[in-house]
Amino acid sequence: MTTATTTTARSAERRELTLEPLGPSFGAVVHDLDLTELTDAQVAAVRAAFVEHKVLFFTGQDLTDADQVAFASRLGDLTAGHPVALSDGPTEIYRIDSSDPEFSFSDVWHTDVTFMTNPPAASILRAVTLPDTGGDTSWADSQLAYDSLSAPVRRLVDGLTAVHDGNREWGAYLRRHADRGNEWDGAVVTSLPPVEHPVVRVHPETGRKGLFVNPGFTSHIAGVSDAESRGILDLLYAHLTKPEHTIRHRWSPGDVGIWDNRATAHYANNDYSGKTRAMARVTLRGDRPYGPADADLHSPTR
Ligand SMILES: O=C(O)CCC(=O)C(=O)O
Ligand SMILES: [Fe+2]
């Protein structure tokens, strides 16, 4: 596709949606769209807006589990709800419910499921039951964070890889459930061997670089000393989560949010203890992350 054609196609997609940006860099609310009745043109527009804005919210929806799965299926391939956590209902749904005895707060900055070789490209979260106050979710723009590092630090991190280990968060759960995980990329997950990903991820659709380490699942930088790893990761986490790199969403009943796990990290605010908050998540299959050194082997898919 030529640049001129791409620009025309994107303008056409934009005209399909009423978008309200949430900040100068990323995040947008999509108004007046019923996710159960999308035309093909609207689906294309939602996909384009998702890649451009990284986090989108759709207000005033009233989706069932099946509606949420159907909407997500129009955007991409669905994975199991989670590689480890077991949920009732459709296998694609991952329930995040504070009244569940297994519930634990996701109050650590993370990008979803980076402890698998192929982490999900996107997560789609629906507000089911909300506390009167609290329970907001925050997102950080990992590409903005990368771009706003100084050039020497960008050069340093461009060449690094990091180990991601799901055992800290999910190992005990997996053992409690007799090593019975879900199916992920065609295999049942019965253990969580650590995986290595580039510290800087090149987005497969835009070619933009973003930081791809997170305090939830990254255990260390590969090939450096423990002290160096801690120092580098602390620097990157503090930088990634600077207020000007983040947005925060206060959920309303019916809201549906979708975020690009290839370009963002997020944090679920832990400020509604003792109250019920229930959300339902589905995730879209993603490809294996690659870094700047391998970018030449891949061409952006749009
Ligand atoms: O409950 C939330 O707001 C977000 C939880 C979370 O980390 C997720 O859905 O991936
Ligand atoms: Fe998450």
Description:
This protein has a single domain, classed as Double-stranded beta-helix (4-Layer Sandwich), CATH 3.60.130.10. It has seven helices and 17 strands. Mean pLDDT is 94; it is low at 1-9. Helix content is 25%, strand content 24%. The N and C termini lie close together (8 Å). Helix 1 crosses helix 2. The longest helix has 15 residues, at 226-240. The protein has 302 residues and is of the alpha+beta class. Bound molecules: 2-oxoglutaric acid and fe (ii) ion. 2-oxoglutaric acid binds next to strand 5, strand 16 and strand 17.
* Corresponding CATH superfamily: Clavaminate synthase-like
CATH architecture: 4-Layer Sandwich
The name of the CATH topology is Double-stranded beta-helix
Average residue-wise pLDDT? 94
The hetero molecules present are:
2-oxoglutaric acid, fe (ii) ion
> Can you tell me the overall shape?
globular
Largest sheet composition? 7 strands, mixed
Keywords: Dioxygenase, Iron, Metal-binding, Oxidoreductase
Domain TauD/TfdA-like: 19-283
Enzyme class: oxidoreductase
Protein name: Taurine dioxygenase, 2-oxoglutarate-dependent
Pick out its properties.
single chain, 302 residues, Double-stranded beta-helix, seven-stranded mixed beta sheet, disordered N terminus, binds fe (ii) ion, AtsK-like, TauD-like_sf, TauD/TfdA-like, Taurine dioxygenase, 2-oxoglutarate-dependent, oxidoreductase
